[in-house]
Amino acid sequence: MTRARTPVVDGWFTGDGDDFRLLGTRCAACASVFFPREDGHCRNPGCPGGDLEEVPLSPRGRIWSYTDSRYRPPSPYVTNPELPWEPYALIAVELAAERIVVLGQAVPGITVADLTVGMEVEVVPGVLHEDAETAWTTWHWRPTGGGA
Amino acid sequence: MTGEVAVLGAGMHPWGKWGRSFVEYGVAAARAALADAGIDWRDVGSVVGADTVRGGYPGHVAGATFAKALGWQGARVTSVYAACASGAQAVNTARAQILSGLADVVLVVGADAAPKGFFRPAGGDRPDDPDWLRFRVLGATNPTYFGLYARRRMAVHGDTPEDFAQVKVKNAASGALNPNARYRKRVTAEEVAASAVVADPLRLLDICATSDGGAALVLSSMEFARRHGVAEPVRIRAVSTVTPRYPSTVLDLPDIATDSAVAVEPAAETFRASIALAAYEEAGIGPEDLSLAEVYDLSTALELQWYEDLGLCGEGDGAKLLREGATAPGGRIPVNTSGGLASFGEAVPAQAIAQVCELTWQLRERAGDRQVAGARVGITANQGLFGHGSAVIAVR
Ligand SMILES: [Zn+2]
Questions:
Q1: Do residue B147 and residue A117 have CB atoms under 8 angstroms apart?
Q2: What does the pLDDT look like over B322-331, one tens digit per residue?
Q3: CA distance B49 to chain A (A)
């Protein structure tokens, strides 16, 4: 049976494979970018407020910092308590064009030993967890091999 | 110049895992502070409670719960919540009431009975709550944010895990001298290095625990203090409760991303540095005037960050300041003489009040074996979830 692929949060990313992108919004008046998306009002205090338009974020950035989660996080993070805990890496990535740092999990199999601050990574589609009917999709950061 | 208020009394219930109600800890701390002040509870005009929050609502909505437990006497009541900054908000509320003439004597109380394990958000599906989202989408516990900051310091400033361990060694040595601390054993660098990694590069002994505890202060107008026979009280000269400025470019709990700086140039100093700056400006002093500082060492690496944010040293020089011994007892600017969160564990609504208790005892020269010789000026600093700044400057 194929599970339905459902984003863990609506509207934060789009596409599959090579055209996968994080989605933010941009203020039409001041060009401020927001991720997670801001759909209400521009949060720049010096801006009169403009329409917030959906924009894809840069697919590549450089590692600002990284860490991992050696212990099982509590709910609402979903894990199978019957399986041993497998730590995953968390990467904070600086996107140069947007001048923003975005946190995400690393692709499975990447550990902190594989990472350095300044290393280039790219955003790729990933699966956060699966249940009987649904594969809950998310974004992952993956080293490009482009070096630091 | 805002004007000063007097600290007439300070009291705590020892930190630990006692398994009792937060009310009991708060009342014990309040009674200790009232006794220290020589004030009858019935003469307190206002009580300000720093709220504990468990299960999604302020536990018993704190101010009135403490007032009831002490015996209803009709005092004005306020309850405040600002996560880790709750205590500073409570002190600030009390100060505002005193300076505006609404009350002569105010009792400030914060207490917590902490849950086991990681702090987690309240239950239910709340996709509009950033604190819920970071757990749901990333499993990003508080220690993972501390791990990110620590790794960043290692990459940018050359800090080492050994530097971080020395913060724990220093604070544990002070905590061993503090009867209110939860952990009263000295710790060696080897013990830190042998503890389990929680969030790379930080280990269990780099990260503060969560604790039960209570702290209270009795604050009054300067005029009341004089009438009460206290000619030279410890005074609170500044309370900083500032918010960040857009764009905030440090990835802070519980955010998944920073603000974008693409359209607006960020301020010269970070949010944490601006918390201290606001306090210095209000007090009319600078970091060179400090005798001691109590900072929020949620992790060992974060204490080093505070050195820089308080202006105790230049950016990137935190580890150097530590290695020189400047922040140890007997150093130029001792930090966390109480033992810090490393020795207490965090009792959220009580913690910022406990920081002011330590300043009070130090400035009175009543800190026993922890005493900083000739202490005249102290600062506390911390930061509450979602952008609550917190710093208090006290003088004698
Ligand atoms: Zn705008």
A1: no
A2: 999 999 999 9
A3: 29
